[in-house]
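The methods section describes the discrete structure representation at length, but only in general terms. What matters is that the chain and its backbone geometry are given together, residue for residue. For illustration, here is how one protein appears when written out as sequence plus structure tokens:
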Amino acid sequence: MAIPSSVRKTDRNPMISALSLAGFIVFWAVLSELRADPRILPGPVQVAQAIWAEAAKGALWLHVSATLARVAVAFTLAMIIGGALGAVLGRSRGLDRWADPWVVVFLNIPALVVIVLCYLWIGLNEVAAITAVTLNKAAMVLVTVREGARVMDPKLDEMAAVFRLSRRDRFFHLMVPQLAPYLAAAARNGLAVIWKIVLVVEFLGRSTGVGFQIHLKFQLFDIPGVMAYAFTFVAIMLVIDYALIQPAEQHARRWRRRAA
């Protein structure tokens, strides 16, 4: 039975999202007024002034772009490695049994430990930074995609065998559409996690990036500066989520809605 369009529709209302963000800013402003000490909890105006000052001298764009580059590279590598391994393990029960303890180990190693070890083993450089972030995120992607591969419809495999589909056709026309919702979920969750790990990497061992600037502002007890860099990057992540991740997620779920 077809699902009514009112039920199928999961798109977020931009007006509601805008009002919700406005409510957050008002809540923040009220808390700042109640605290009455901009050195401890600066309000939206003070943080906006700090953002403008950092942007005017060019520091904001330099460090934000450095963090974005690290996020993009590590995110891409984690999705490719974690997605490929997750699909393989989800389709092979025997291999999954042997590899599962490894997956659990990598999932439970603290991100801080991986970052420190990468810096000690590889050095204080970009390769170590990207490797640390990729290793932390790839295991999460693997687990999500593996669950999707486990629940793939066996009837579609039978159909592919009957019609003698090539491996390429099976991959692009059967496997990818079924795994797409899980890949989209991994991407969305990953984007929310990976940039936080990048900030820790920059905090500990890089001389550029939002994490480095937050470390510097922390040493100076410059709370408006800390919040300026943090909220600037949060705003960028919100734009990426609404403009890219959510449309991709909705597109990935489209075939399921049609099937229903």
